[in-house]
Design brief:
mainly alpha, MetI-like fold, 2 domains, two-stranded antiparallel ribbon, two-stranded parallel ribbon, 26 helices, 6 strands, globular
């Protein structure tokens, strides 16, 4: 009994201690500094967000971007989800995989290519002049920077809402829709009065996730030069962490919005599971084949969406293989030189090595923590397991921007000139922040694997005298290895391209990860943009391969990785 208690409670204490130090303490530090000063408790700094004209503009612009991105993603994802959940057509499996392509490059990197397309001397402006539609160069991004940000973030995020919607539509009992049809309702009325209300919890849960994600996005407005948004103002206030509490108030407000969105998403998903599955499996759903005309229309729609979605990726690729793209529709001077320079210069070579080491460390940490949490919640069913699971999901509600700012605030000076001082060496904290951000992926993957595997084999091994640790090592882990591998691939791939943590924590060039190196190269001379694009293509290939591998292992369950619970 003593060994069993130790093997149960020690992992709980270890997980709670880790998350307490590296998640809850930084968040508590942010709120403390935002609400206390030398005079004591105050809400003045938070109030300043709604009284200072500059702060009001930043908050309003951030909300506007998030709202526009959410609406745009919904307009794209809704017809796609209905098409894939209700109809069958040639190439459906291939198309469903291709819809994940927009996720393989962060909008931060894609913005590099989009700037070339829509700049004053870019491809679109030149094309319009050549066609006689414009008398001179048109600076599209200068005139409409908000539109560029919304478009880029929407093209990156709509697959997440699509995955949520496909799951929501798939959970609806087909007998409910068939009953409405049998009573004389038209297909449009059935969708409006039956299907859509049952899918609304899943739809709104995905919309909330998109809203929070775009509200806290740092990289895209930073590259486009839009400074009056909340994430960029937080980034600019990092240098004043020790002297100006205004940055803490901004971070606290972002955290409140994110936590509220996460809570709403959790409630909606719980409602989706309890309402949309009423009577489920009473009859099997039969997908309706599209007619020839419908197949052509669906193919045209899919080509249009994917063509627009991969346009930023294509522009990055073209930049990486050309020497010059100025006042021409297509680039000139084709070359593969920049791919070599992207891996051979001092800055990029060190950045690649740093990112590989950081991502590997974060993945190993997530494997240990994620499996431990899932094992305690599913197999041991410990008291407080629901709270432990909720705590592990909390990073979904905490943007990397908030975590990185909290680390800079609470660890700077607390352990001077040590590996826990981000101004001295941020590598440990970078790896930890990556792992914290991706921990929910691993927990969900391990949780799904443990729920699918029967306990019979583990009980048999225990009855033969194997210790609990030996049962886990020789029986449990091999049985769920595919799930753990899929979670590890996602953790590693997304950690390689983590943006907010890297931009804030990596202050010195020798500690730059890939994303910070790309940001540094964008404004550098001597083909810096081309080298940054080549580095982005290498990262795109890595993340794309990772997503394809994880999808092959998890199948349709890949969508669970991007849900709040």
């Amino acid at each position: 009994m003593r060994r069993l208690r130790l093997t149960t409670w020690f992992p709980i204490l270890a997980v709670v201690a880790f998350l307490g130090v590296f998640l809850m303490w930084p968040l508590a530090h942010v709120f403390t500094r935002a609400c206390w000063d030398k005079t004591g408790f105050t809400l003045g700094y938070l109030r300043n967000l709604f009284t200072n004209p500059v702060q009001i503009e930043a908050v309003g612009m951030s909300f506007l971007i998030a709202a526009c991105v959410t609406v745009t993603c919904t307009a794209i994802a809704m017809p796609l989800a209905w098409l894939f959940a209700r109809r069958t057509f040639p190439g459906k499996v291939l198309w469903s995989g291709l819809l994940l392509v927009p996720m393989i490059l962060p909008p931060f990197v894609s913005a590099v290519g989009m700037k070339i397309l829509f700049s004053r001397a870019g491809a679109l402006s030149t094309l319009m002049m050549n066609l006689g539609l414009a008398n001179g160069p048109v600076d599209w991004l200068g005139r409409f920077p908000l539109a560029g940000i919304v478009l880029l973030e929407s093209l990156h995020l709509f697959p997440i809402l699509y995955l949520n919607l496909v799951a929501a539509l798939g959970n609806i009992d087909p007998s409910l829709e068939e009953a409405a049809l049998n009573l004389g309702a038209s297909p449009v009325r059935v969708f409006r009065r039956v299907t859509l209300p049952l899918a609304l919890p899943g739809l709104f849960a995905g919309m909330v996730l998109i809203f929070v994600w775009s509200f806290t996005e740092l990289g895209t407005p930073l590259v486009f030069g839009l400074r009056r948004v909340l994430p960029v103002m937080i980034y600019d206030s990092v240098s004043e962490i020790g002297t100006n509490p205004a940055g803490y108030a901004q971070v606290a407000f972002v955290l409140i919005i994110s936590a509220l969105g996460f809570w709403i998403s959790k409630r909606l998903i719980a409602r989706d599971r309890s309402v949309a599955t009423l009577g489920r499996l009473s009859v099997g759903r039969k997908e309706v084949p599209l007619t020839r005309a419908g197949t052509w229309l669906a193919t045209g729609f899919l080509l249009a969406v994917l063509g627009l979605a991969v346009l930023p990726h294509l522009s990055v690729i073209l930049l990486s293989i050309s020497r010059r793209w100025f006042l021409t529709v297509l680039p000139q001077g084709w070359t593969l030189e920049f791919f070599g320079r992207a891996l051979n210069s001092d800055l990029t070579r060190e950045a690649v090595v740093n990112s590989l080491g950081l991502s590997l460390g974060a993945t190993v940490l997530d494997l240990v923590l994620g499996f431990g949490i899932a094992w305690l919640c599913v197999r041991k069913r410990v008291i407080g397991g629901d709270w432990l699971d909720a705590l592990s999901m909390l990073p979904l509600a905490v943007p990397g921007l908030v975590i990185a700012f909290g680390y800079m605030g609470c660890f700077s000076g607390a352990f001077p000139n040590t590996l826990l001082d981000p101004r001295f060496n941020p590598m440990i904290l970078l790896a930890v922040s990556y792992s914290i951000r991706r921990l929910p992926y691993m927990v969900r993957a391990a949780h799904a694997g443990l729920e699918q595997v029967s306990t019979t084999y583990e009980e048999a091994a225990a009855n033969l005298g194997a210790s609990p640790l030996r049962v886990v090592w020789r029986v449990t882990l091999p049985l769920i290895s595919a799930n753990l591998l899929a979670g590890a691939i996602l953790c590693f791939s997304f950690s390689m391209l983590e943006v907010s943590d890297s931009l804030i924590l990596a202050q010195s060039e020798r500690f730059y990860p890939i994303t910070k190196a790309i940001y540094a190269l964008i404004d550098s001379l001597e083909n810096g943009v081309n080298i940054a694009s080549a580095l982005g293509v290498w990262a795109m290939l890595l993340l794309g391969a990772g997503l394809l591998w994880a999808t092959a292992l998890l199948g349709k369950r890949i969508g669970q990785m991007f849900r709040a619970g």
